[in-house]
Fold this protein.
Amino acid sequence: MSLLAVRNLDVNFDTPDGEVHAVTKLNFSISAGDALGIVGESGSGKTQTMMAVMGLLAENGHASGQALFKGHDLLQMDTAELNHHRGKEIAMIFQDPMTSLNPYLSIEKQMVEVVMHHQGLSKAEARAHALEMLSAVRIPDPERRIRQYPHEYSGGMRQRVMVAMGLVCEPDLLIADEPTTALDVTVQAQICQLMSELRRKSNTAIILITHDLGVVAGLCDKVLVMYAGHPVECGSVEQIYYRPRHPYTKGLLDSVPRLDQPEEKGLHAIPGNPPNLLSLPRGCRFRERCPKAFADCVEAPPMSVDSEGHAYRCFLDEPA
C-alpha cells in the first residue's frame, strides 16, 4: 500500500476576480522510502498541492478529492487530527524560512519543543538531538547558534535550520519545498546527501518541490511534471530526462544550461506565458505555447500510460 495516495485533488481559491483553479484532477502516490520530484514553472500548483495535503491552505482556499496517508484521508481531518500526523509522521520544509520561523522564539525553543512533544524525550535529550541536527546541516558552532534568534542568521543559515527542523523527528514523509533555495552549491550537495541518508536510514519518503532539475536527478526516483495546475507527465527519472513525452517537459529540459552545448546556441526559453488560472483555455493548457500543437489540441487530452508506466497528457504518439 502507498504511504500517500492523492486522488482527484482539486485546489481552488475564492478571489474578488473569481475562482482561481490552482490544481485540477491531480493523481499521484508515493511509497515508503521513495523520492518524488514535483517540477514546473512558478504558479503550476506544486506548493498548493502540498499545502492542501498538510491542511495549510489560506482561508480563501478549499480542496476536494482525497489525500490518503496510511489509508486515512487527510482532507477530511480537523486540525486536532492533523496535528497527530504533522511534525512527527509528516514534516514540511517551507520555501521561505524567514516567515516560517517564529521571530520571537530562539532556535533552541523552536526545535526542542518539537522533539519533546513528538518523541517524548527529556529537555536535555531533545536539546542534544537538536544540536546533532544543526551540526548535520553544517551550522557552525551549534552550541552558541542554537541560543540565537532567526534574525541573527543569514538567509542560507535559516534555510538550513528549516531543513534541520524537518528532519529532526525522522518523519515517515518529508515534503521539501525548494529546500536548497539561497544555498550555495556545496551546501546544496550536503543537504541532498542528508536527505538521501534519511531515506536510507529511516525509510522516509520524500516529496521534493523544486525548479532545479539537477537536484531532482540526483535525489529522486520519480518525477511529476505540472503545468497550470495540471499534471502533464509522470515517470521515472530516466523516462522523464531521456524520453520525455510531453512538449512542456521537453521545453523544461532544454532550458537547463549544458556544458556540452555550443556557446553560440544560447539558452532556450519556452515562448509565451502560462495561462490565466481564473480563465483556463479550452483543450490542452499548453497548446498556445506548444511548438507541436495541431488541430486535436483544442480538446483536452487524456492522461495516457504506456507499457512501462510512463504517464503523459498529450495526443502525440512519438516522444517530444
Q: What stands out?
A: The CA atoms of residues 255 and 269 lie 6 Å apart. The longest strand covers residues 18-30. The chain has one domain: 4-312. Residues 4-312 form a domain with the Rossmann fold fold (CATH 3.40.50.300).
